[in-house]
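User: quick one
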Amino acid sequence: MTTKKKIFKIALIVIGVGLLIGGGVGYYMFNKPARDVQNTETDFSYQASEIVNEYLSDPKKANDKYLDEAGNSKVLEISGTVAEISEDFNNQKVILLKAEGDKAGVSCTFTAETNASTQNIQIGDQTTIKGVIRSGASFDADLDMYENVIIEKSDIVTTK
Amino acid sequence: MKKTIFTTLATVAIILTSFTASAQKLVSSNTHFKFFSSTPAENIEANNYKAVGTIETGTGEIVFSVPMQSFEFEKALMQEHFNSKKFLDTKTNPKSKLIGKITNLNQINFGKDGSYPADIVGDLTLNGVTNPVKEKATITIKGGKVALSSKLNVTLNDYKIAFSSGKPSTNIAKTVEVTVHAAY
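Assistant: Done. Structure below.
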């Protein structure tokens, strides 16, 4: 009788703890924060021209290599010449890295936290920017123009 | 005589400049696409600032190319659902596209400041599925700068985006609202 009660009690505790852990994991997953791109290890480092040309020569293969099904795509470090500096509707700085004579460049969007890193950047500077790739470069026949590689959650890579 | 020649030349010059001014391709890379879904369970919002658009002022042709992985959600899990094969399959279809034409182009004066309602007829390609769309937009011209804003309703089922069961099926609206802003 007492053993039965004991077993019942233990089982109840185990189930209770299981539910708590399960619920906790579920709650954490539901509320998990967005990926911290800057603290994610860099997957590839390129010159702006290299990734642009890779996309222009075989976009399907490049998408396969860089894009992730859940949107957690590859983290890249792109080096190149600053061709344009602008700001988007969300007050985020946008730096275009594009080599002279290239058909497209790499458009890098910063964040509220990293905007300040662009303060001393000027057109013509050589710099390296780390961010997550969102889409590749291509010629769009409807727009009748080349589209840039898109990198977001960017920050300037400081030489250590 | 000299005066007449001068006047004629001046008139031709003015006509030529106004013609080139009224028939040009405007490009916008400063855009904002907002996706908004409302159900009794919750409101879901996602923002995208990386679309590129063009307006051909001579023909009224409008194009937007939207990089789908640039939609940013408050919750990471929602963003992953959105990108997944079950929803928008953004790895296979990294961009969605709107190709349209302004049908009341004669009522829009790109050379004069003002706010003009525009009727747009075209095709929207989302998740690899193309459907005809008919939307209203507002074109604003201020100091020679052109801006466009619009609100469209997208029925997810039309684009083979459907959740048959589980939380997403109850928490995502069948028709979502997409707000567009573009500065050219």
